[in-house]
Specification:
alpha+beta; eight-stranded mixed beta sheet; three-stranded antiparallel beta sheet; 11 strands; flat
Length: 351
């Protein structure tokens, strides 16, 4: 359907909802009001577009009037430029929404290839995302931080809460490669290591129904850094979801109850993501967006410290400011990935 027809239908639906809200009763009012509230930003943008189109057309008529030509020309050019910009904004707003975009996310980082150096970089990358979250005033709660050797980690998990967290971070999933001279390297050789990053939409209980009989829950004594409770109480928890084979272990807290709650939060997010991935594969068929699948096995980015650059391989973007990125300045990368995704989705809608 052409854009003008889509916009006419949208305005008509908004008008129907305004009338329905006025005559509705009980629970119906809430549902209708929510739908209308979702449409209002679109309605405002449509009205801005229609106003720009009218102003452009009126100015074009006045171009033939010698006395008005100079003023009309400036107005005509301004509105002629504004109309396509407003049209694109509307097309983006009309793209199908990912229901998880506005919600929270679970961030998981694990060292892959590279031994101690991979663990060190995993810890540094985890801190970089923490700084990014803090700069955006999101809540960053560490769910798991399994320390390794030399200050690295064997794995780290966090819940990041705030408006639009998943939309901003979802393209970070994949394999992140680092090239640098490790602190333990005595001959100055550059090593290559990798870590895996997973960004999962946080699932509510209504999103994923987990039956208690499908769970195997084991408790054991925590190991590693953790204070007085280590090796004294069975505070650590391992939960296995039998139908999918998904396993989550948690030992960060001294309380078994708190570790179980955290483990369930991560388990629910992993199962939710599995369900979403299956549904998306069914809808998308063979088509893959240029920004990638978000799969943890896909190499997405290289951090080259000797050359001071970060390269995102999905869109061929290279930034020569690795120090700033490692301080949590991911916006240039994320903005470019988001724009590429939007372009790919617009192209698919036009097919």
């Amino acid at each position: 359907m052409a854009l003008p027809q889509k916009l006419d239908r949208l305005l008509l639906r908004a008008e129907e909802l305004r009338h329905a809200v006025n005559v509705a009763e009980g629970a119906q009012i809430g549902a209708l009001s929510r739908e209308l509230a979702e449409l209002e930003p679109l309605v405002g943008k449509v009205e801005a577009l229609r106003a720009a189109e009218r102003a452009r057309d009126e100015a074009e008529v006045l171009l033939s009037d010698p006395e008005m030509r100079e003023l009309a020309e400036a107005e005509y050019l301004a509105q002629k430029e504004a109309v396509p910009l407003l049209e694109r904004e509307l097309q983006l707003m009309l793209l199908p929404k990912d229901s998880a975009d506005e919600g929270n996310a679970i961030l998981e980082i694990r060292p892959a290839a590279g031994g101690d150096e991979a663990g060190l970089f995993a810890a540094e990358l985890f801190r970089a995302y923490q700084r990014y979250a803090e700069a955006r005033r999101w809540r960053f709660e560490v769910l798991e931080y399994d320390e390794g050797e030399l200050g690295g980690v064997k794995g780290a998990t966090a819940e990041i809460a705030g408006k639009g967290v998943f939309a901003r971070l979802k393209f970070e999933s994949g394999v992140h490669r680092v090239q640098r001279v490790p602190a333990t390297e005595t001959q100055g050789r550059i090593h290559t290591s990798t870590v895996t990053v997973a960004v999962l939409p946080e699932a509510e209980e209504v999103d994923v129904q987990i039956d208690e009989k499908d769970l195997r829950i084991d408790t054991y004594r925590a190991s590693g850094a953790g204070g007085q409770h280590v090796n004294k109480t069975d505070s650590a928890v391992r939960i296995t979801h039998l139908p999918t084979g998904t396993v989550v272990a948690m030992q960060e807290e001294k309380s078994q109850h708190k570790n179980r709650a955290k483990a369930m939060k991560v388990l629910r997010a992993r199962i939710y993501e599995q369900q979403r991935a299956a549904a998306q594969a069914d809808r998308a068929g063979a088509r893959r967006a240029q920004v990638g699948t978000g799969d943890r096995s896909e190499r997405i980015r290289t951090y080259n410290f000797p050359q001071g650059r970060v390269t995102d391989h999905r869109i061929g973007l290279t930034l020569h400011k690795i120090d700033r990125v490692m301080l949590g300045e991911f916006d240039d990368l994320i903005d470019a990935l988001t724009a590429e995704d939007q372009a790919a989705r617009l192209a698919a809608e036009a097919e």
